[in-house]
Design brief:
By secondary structure, the protein is α+β, with helices and mostly antiparallel strands. It has 2 domains: about 15-315, Bira Bifunctional Protein, Domain 2 (BirA Bifunctional Protein, domain 2, 2-Layer Sandwich), CATH 3.30.930.10; about 330-430, Anticodon-binding domain (Rossmann fold). Helix content is about 30%, strand content about 30%. The chain has helices at about 25-35, 50-70, 85-90, 90-95, 115-125, 175-195, 275-280, 300-310, 340-360, 375-385, 395-400, 420-430; strands at about 40, 45-50, 75, 80, 100-105, 110, 135-145, 160-170, 200-205, 215-220, 225-230, 235-240, 260-270, 280-285, 290, 295-300, 315, 320, 330-335, 365, 390, 400-405, 415. The strands form 6 sheets. Strands 3, 7, 8, 9, 10, 11, 12, 13 and 16 form a 9-stranded mixed beta sheet that branches. It has a 5-stranded mixed beta sheet with strand order 20-19-21-22-23, sandwiched between helices. It is elongated, with a radius of gyration of 25 Å.
Length: about 425
């Protein structure tokens, strides 16, 4: 069987739409649906189409690399959890109405996991016996389910969503504090690699811990949170707990504080012994004494990060993907001519460019569609938001050139086809940044 080609736009599953979906208000949902990245099944539940899944997998790989760099070991945990575990921690009732509950045919009650502290603490109970087993860090990338009453922000707030949750286990507070700072640095690297500037913000621990936690906030008008921050030194606090106010001096450097709307792209918590004590996760220390394992928790929503990137990186024409997470690096567009003979030459030249890009491991979506005008192809290209647009037309063919435009820029450039190798090198270098 011939291997299918998924990089030809005529074969791409998922079509662009000219109009915004009527039941979506958030920018990320409107643009991702219109551009064919996701499809809405119902409020807060989305399917990832091929373009969207490519973005998702790139975000996933960046996260995996940075978490493994701080010694996280990957596992995959069940979504279905028995009621008994949640009763031990007090969260069967305490978690609130967001908890999805169900029964099996034996009338046994279960939870569809909104988070995984109960299961991870149960695993720690079975696998951590002495101080020699500590410290330890385990992470997974898994579906979560929350009966969210405000599922109206696209990928920023859903009923079903994918998260990376990392858990660390320690013998003492000092060990937890050291790893917590390592995780904080890893998170900032993740957001930076995804093309986002995030601020580490002190926030309430909520239902997870009595200690302050840290949220990683990205400025955007779509944000539901208010952050008091200083852009000179990076001081930032959630407005709910801030003891300072906007337009006042920063307590760290004296710069003027601002209040910005922001979206939470990730969070980290010092859980302490809350879950280990509830589920019996104890270890024996050097003196032979039995103590509860001290835990930390670190979460990033992958879809939420994707939605945040769209909220921050777009214009009136569509998405402008950061290069590291774009579905493809290059959008190659062939513009047909009226003359049949020129069209054959155009097709041959564009096909050859396509093959050269693939040979050099440049990810390319090739718009070779015959039933679309130049205007339709350019509009789709802007909407989809791939970083580089290469155009082969009758005009460029006769000059032995390619037209190049970087998404978000207004200026067009031209390169001789014979010099395409230098263009490829430049794209490859930019993609690695």
């Amino acid at each position: 069987m011939k291997k299918p080609i998924f990089m030809l736009q005529s074969k791409l599953f998922g079509k662009t739409q000219r109009d915004d979906p009527k039941d979506e208000t958030s920018i990320n949902a409107r643009l991702l649906i219109r551009a064919g990245f996701i499809d809405k099944l119902t409020a807060g539940v989305y399917s990832y189409l091929p373009l969207g899944w490519r973005v998702f997998k790139k975000i996933e790989q960046i996260i995996r690399e940075e978490i493994e760099a701080i010694n996280g070991q990957e596992v995959f945990l069940p979504v279905l959890m028995p009621r008994e575990l949640w009763e031990k921690t007090g969260r069967w009732e305490g978690f609130g109405e967001a908890l999805f509950r169900l029964k099996d045919r034996s009338d046994r009650e279960f939870v569809l996991g909104p988070t995984h502290e109960e299961i991870i603490a149960e695993l720690a109970r079975k696998n951590i016996q002495t101080y020699k087993d500590l410290p330890m860090a385990i992470f997974q990338i898994q579906d979560k389910f929350r009966d969210e009453p405000r599922a109206k922000a696209g990928l920023l707030r859903g009923k079903e969503f994918m998260m990376k949750d990392l858990y660390s286990f320690h013998a003492d507070e000092q060990s937890l504090n050291v790893y917590y700072e390592e995780a904080k640095k890893a998170y900032l690297k993740i957001f930076n690699r995804c093309g986002l500037k995030a601020f580490s913000v002190e926030a309430s621990g909520g239902t997870f811990t009595n200690q302050y936690s840290h949220e990683f906030m990205v400025k955007t008008p779509a944000g539901e949170d208010a952050t008091i921050l200083c852009e000179l030194c990076g001081f930032a606090r959630n407005k709910d707990i801030a003891e300072v106010a906007a337009k006042k001096p920063c307590p760290n450097c004296g710069g003027i504080l601002k209040e910005e709307k922001s979206v939470e792209a990730g969070n980290i918590f010092k859980l302490g012994t809350k879950f280990s004590e509830a589920l019996g996760a104890y270890f024996t220390d050097k003196e032979g004494q039995k103590k509860p394992v001290i835990m930390g928790c670190y979460g990033i929503g992958l879809g939420r990060l994707m939605g945040t990137a769209v909220e921050v990186c777009h214009d009136e024409r569509g998405i402008i993907w950061p290069e590291a997470i774009a579905p493809y690096q290059v959008h190659l567009i062939k513009i047909d001519a009226a003359d049949f003979k020129i069209n054959r030459r155009l097709r041959k030249a564009a096909d050859n460019i396509y093959k050269v890009l693939l040979k050099n491991k440049i990810e390319v979506l090739y718009d070779e569609r015959l039933d679309c005008s130049a205007g339709e192809k350019f509009a789709d290209s802007d909407l989809i938001g791939i970083p580089y647009r290469l155009v082969m037309s009758e005009k460029t063919l006769l000059r032995d050139e390619l037209e190049i435009k970087k998404r978000g820029a207004e200026k067009l450039q031209f390169v001789k086809i014979k010099n395409i190798s230098s263009l490829i090198k430049n794209i490859a270098v930019n993609n690695k940044k």
